[in-house]
């Protein structure tokens, strides 16, 4: 044997297939190289339509693919050419664009305008201070969001969706060449199935689809069995569409109407298929449409709308008060330029420029905290919705119960143990290729069957009729001997009974009489009452006259018996439900399972059942009728996916913030409809895609921790807004009084700006503050009216002590003329800054600060540092630069008394306010 000749022959074989040139000469321009232009939907429509009408063999040849897919090397080469399978809008923002987004909020734009005005009026110190505030606010937000996005991307990578892809084994072709030229017999393993991240798909890949899968790219079907696809995301059609390999109509001009094409962004409802990838990423129909709408702003969420309302409340207040201060000082002092600069400084002082940074920081901190508790946050705003959630709707299986179902019994129709029923169930689960749910896994893993694995080897699979949620059953057709076929059907008992006309009783086939039906209902009811989930098993013999079967063949069956499953509740469920109830979250069960099984599980986990509603009843109700009962009912059983979605929407319309937790195909519509969709990393693709949060462990205890984290996040955001609003209102009120009676400005514009800058810096640690336990007991929401009322009530309280300081400086320390205004301004500068900083600790809690509730060490440290700086500035050599002067030491006992009285009055006001209006 000449080994060199063998190597050269194999090398020639590879070169002949273009692998050494990375497939640059492959005839795939039709699908891969079309430029993305404004008219791509029309161009793409033509390309897809041509692919749909093309013969399968010709199409695969054009794509340089095969029925068993591409090789790894071929796929890598194509991916290098066309890029990842991602749509344009999924790419992260570049850092300059991200920085611009962090800057362009109303407060920063307003401050920039004020800084520009200060610059052109030659007030450089004011321009520098205002500019510093803008830079600090923007950079803090930029850094926080960048860190948050990096962490989120790492977490999302843990739950990225995958597709089942066929990989061709090149060794088969090499073996054929070796046999042909050298008479050498090689034994390749053949094509293999692999799970590949969706973004790695390339044109020419052959993918396998089953119920629950997302369509990962634009595809042409190669084979299909009862394939139903939901195209609602693309076409708005509410009902799934059946897809076929050979479409009945190819004359349509719309690719979406072609029955042998599937499109990225849709999902498989039921059935199974294999398909070849035509286009990926931005070259898909979905990608082309997405590129057109990426410039369109998204509708603000409830959280964003709440922040916007509060922001504009503060801005409107500033726009009203600033002109009042300007004109009052202009008329009383006569210096309009000084009055303008002073009004400008007041406007800056009233601007909550740190609000965007505080919001971003608190949300980012919440996301990091939840990640430590095994919760992946796909959308930051969802954290606040978590805290606002007051109703949690959840599926039963895998949430209340363990994610492991055990096959407990296999019985005949009278409830007696029957091994033959188990064999039928095993064959059905073994040969079905659709979505293997937990029941199938339990059947296949059943201990008694480990000795009987040879059962399946004695049969040949003929066909199958996949599961769907309308029939709630599935069938396989097998043949043990070629003289007949056996159709074995299993599913929900009532659905199985509906297609049975006979039953097997004591080894004989008897008619399904009303008396026998009553006995069947009694037997299954007693099993359900024990907490067992009962599945019916039926079968019938058929002549071996055909190889393809349909739904019509599921008729005239013989009821064989039942298989009963036990899904025990988790140990953590009962305490978790109690904790959620204690924190004001009502839990409702939305399940497609039997009402008797559901009720028993609820009793075991301590969930009080205040009414039960079945899907059949929901179907007959109008939305108005459902709205009347939906809040009162705890358990909804035997629901379809549409019923779940409808219940969630009705609860939302009633004013609730609704969370929904699910992991199945039937949960996807409800996940989308909920204010906060929650799924798990083991969920089907479409459920994970629809969710806002993904749990890495399926436990309600994690949900309770998430709720608390969401409420902590909201509490800290609200603290800043309340502190800023009340403090700013009080300062302006004091300025108005002082401006009306003093012969000089109570504080220079520079003093106001420096004071405001120091106060803002002290707020940076608020996202890391502690939250009182009572604040976590009930859901929290934005209430702009309450914030406005809080501002009006608490703002003037600080003015009382500002006026006391005015009197102290005027009468006690003799700062009662323009010649001594610097001393007056120094006294108010310190008192104003310290009272503003003190209000942080007073308003952050309803309790007595420092004694009953202490701030976190970061916040405590920042407050002490800023207070020290505020005292050092006028008492040091820096005083001259800031146009201040040192105060006599006798000033500080008076200051301590004023601050103590201020703290006492604020505490009394808090007690009164909380009794009358509540403390949010």
TrEMBL record:
Segments passing through the bilayer:
790-813, 825-843, 855-876, 891-909
Against InterPro entries, the record matches this protein to: ATPase_P-typ_cation-transptr_C, ATPase_P-typ_cation-transptr_N, ATPase_P-typ_cyto_dom_N, ATPase_P-typ_P_site, ATPase_P-typ_TM_dom_sf, ATPase_P-typ_transduc_dom_A_sf, ATPase_P-type_domA, HAD-like_sf
The first-level EC class reads translocase
Per its UniProt record, what SMART domains does this chain match?
A: Cation_ATPase_N (SM00831)
CDD domains, from UniProt?
P-type_ATPase_Mg (cd02077)
UniProt domain Cation-transporting P-type ATPase N-terminal: residue ranges = 50-123
| NCBIfam families on file | ATPase-IIIB_Mg, ATPase_P-type, PRK15122.1
Know the name of this protein? Answer: Magnesium-transporting ATPase, P-type 1
Which lineage do the record's taxonomy fields give for this organism?
Answer: Bacteria, Pseudomonadati, Pseudomonadota, Betaproteobacteria, Burkholderiales
Chain's gene name? mgtA
